[in-house]
Amino acid sequence: MSSLLSLPLALLLHAAPAATPEPVLFAPGVVSTGNEEFGITFSPDGRTVVFNRADPTRFQFQLLMTSQWRDGRWTTPEVLPFSGRYRDIDPAFSPDGKRLFFASVRPQSKEEVVHADFDIWFVERTDKGWGTPRLAEGLNTPDTETNTSVSREGAVYVTRSQKAGKRRIYRHAPQASGWGPGEPLPEVINSGHGDGNHFVDADERYLIFSSQRPGGVAPDGYDLYVSERKEGQWGVPRNLGQAVNQLDGGLTPTVVPARGTLIYAQRRPFVTTPPERPLTTKEFATKLESPGNGNGDFYEVRLADVGLPAPGR
């Protein structure tokens, strides 16, 4: 893996764009709905999306759903065949699309009804469909593991939360039979302000993650930041800015090379100011059932518009 960045890439990562277009809803009414959605990943060709949908409380039950791009539109999402019984969250395809990683509380022994915390699992994907989920040996600890992101060489970046502490991001190098012990990323990333919820570029050139570190845009939420990796060292993170982070920050970012975009989850408030006129019963009901009602939705913005490099650069 090369640790050197081209000059154009370095300039893009360091420079915040002067005018960032407003991010747009991804697949409104199909993937982004009035339900709680977060956690999203795409196959390498960009034609399969896997994401989380949750119960109205957000925290009692979550499952993995998938939609396909066919005939110029996204199909009605369906629950993945191995999900729907236990809490499954934070899906992440490997760069080749052959594995899907996710976190789950599914039992790990015959004695368990559910596991006490989230651990990392993965499932193989072939031309014939999905395999059987397997516990990702080497990635799990007695703490809680949630988000994953996988490099081209097979390193897995994991968000880990201690029983009484903030989230941190760890890198697990690949080994012949799995992954080695996790190494925490340096303090420039793991600031002690809930850093996690991340995406790493397939070649480990940059890392996008959420954090509550001082100086953010979202007063009470987690802002999205990007850090460049140069000569083996992670640089000072740059906030992705007002257009992305807005009032509630951003969650579960993913870069989709096939689309040339960044997609992330966000919970935009139901209202920020009173409507210009009273809502009718029908208007109120429609807004309750639509994206932008305070539940999580997905938003999409071009990479160049937030100072991220185009695929292959």
Specify the overall morphology.
Answer: globular
Summed over residues and divided by their number, the pLDDT gives a mean of: 91
- Structural class based on helices, strands and sheet pairing: mainly beta
The helix fraction, in percent, is: under 10%
Distance between the termini: 15 Å
Reported for the largest beta sheet, the result is: 5 strands, antiparallel
Radius of gyration: 19 Å
Strand content: 35-45%
Low-confidence stretches: 1-5, 14-18
Number of helices: 3
Task: Write up this protein.
Strands 2, 3, 4, 5 and 6 form a 5-stranded antiparallel beta sheet that branches. Strands 7, 8, 9, 10 and 11 form a 5-stranded antiparallel beta sheet that branches. Strands 16, 17, 18, 19 and 20 form a 5-stranded antiparallel beta sheet that branches. Helix content is 6%, strand content 40%. The protein is mainly β and 313 residues long. It is built from 3 helices and 23 strands. It has helices at 7-14, 242-245, 281-288; strands spanning 24-25, 36-42, 48-54, 62-70, 73-74, 78-79, 88-93, 99-104, 119-126, 129-130, 134-135, 144-150, 156-161, 167-175, 178-184, 196-200, 206-211, 223-230, 233-234, 238-239, 251-256, 261-267, 296-302. The radius of gyration is 19 Å and the shape is globular. Residues 1-5 and 14-18 have low confidence and may be disordered. Strand 7 and strand 8 form a beta hairpin.
Briefly, what is this?
With 313 residues, this protein is mainly beta. 6% of the residues lie in helices and 40% in strands.
Name a few traits of the molecule:
mainly beta, 5-stranded antiparallel β-sheet, 3 helices, 23 strands, disordered N terminus
